[in-house]
Specification:
Distance between the termini: 25 Å
Helix content: 25-40%
Number of helices: 10
Number of strands: 9
Strand content: 15-25%
Radius of gyration: 18 Å
Largest sheet: 7 strands, mixed
């Protein structure tokens, strides 16, 4: 089965410049499953969610349809990487306690994916999916970043709509569980922010179509509002989590 591959060519930048999910999220998930034995992280990308799950689960299976993403993922004891699409995982029936999808559900064939979830997750296990959109740094920097996103928005694949809508409108046929708010936090300087931009599929598509990067202009704008570009500033992203009992 083919998959929508927008990140294999960005695997190196993706691994270096994506923010880290908070450990409190994974602790909360582990506390809400009957047994914290086996977790499956689907569309693992650079493996950051899988590595965090490994702190709370005895075994983590991390799958991704992209061989390049798997090759760039960080290795760790307790994490087993496999190349497999979300809809056909190769996992055994009723074998995992929780199934996580970080910033990737919008790419899936939901009907087939949800059938795979029901096949693989144990009774009363969890499906946890989340996304994030705009970061918060300072009002002036945020305004530049949002304007930049608006300029490149049309270069993202159409599935980006579901991210913009914070996953609220994605069909989710499970009994939902309320969860507290979780935030990603980082200390980034200007070069870190520009590296994050380079990992965007919309930026890569713009460059492919126009033969130049759209980052040159926004870098100038950011330097005009970033008092000292070499000094890291606190960056925050709210996670939009949907949590369901399988």
């Amino acid at each position: 089965m083919s998959f929508k591959d927008h990140f294999s060519s960005l695997a190196s930048d993706y691994a270096r410049h994506r923010p880290r999910y908070p450990d409190a999220l994974f602790q909360f998930l582990a506390e809400n499953v009957p047994n914290a034995q086996c977790a499956w992280d689907c569309a693992t990308g650079n493996g950051q969610a899988a590595l965090a799950l490994a702190k709370h689960f005895s075994r983590v299976i991390a799958t991704d349809a992209s061989a390049k993403q798997i090759a760039a993922a960080e290795q760790s004891h307790g994490v087993e990487y496999r190349i497999a699409p979300a809809e056909h995982s190769t996992l055994e029936d009723v074998s995992v306690d929780i199934y996580t999808v970080a910033q990737a559900l919008h790419w899936f064939d939901w009907k087939q994916f949800y059938a795979e979830v029901r096949r693989v997750v144990r009774p009363n296990g969890l499906l946890a999916v989340w996304t994030y959109t705009h970061s918060t740094i300072t009002p002036e920097i945020d305004a530049v970043m949002r304007n930049f996103y608006a300029r490149v928005r049309s270069y993202f694949p159409p599935e980006r709509q579901w991210v913009d809508e914070e996953y609220r409108t994605i069909p989710f046929p499970f009994t939902e569980i309320n969860a507290p708010d979780f935030y990603m936090e980082a200390l980034w300087n200007l070069e870190d922010v520009l590296g994050y931009y380079r990992s965007w599929s919309g930026v890569a598509n713009y460059q492919q179509q126009h033969g130049k990067s759209p980052l040159d202009e926004v870098e100038t704008e950011l330097r005009s509002v970033w008092q000292n570009p070499d000094i890291p500033l606190p960056v925050s992203w709210k996670l939009h989590l949907r949590l369901g009992r399988v």
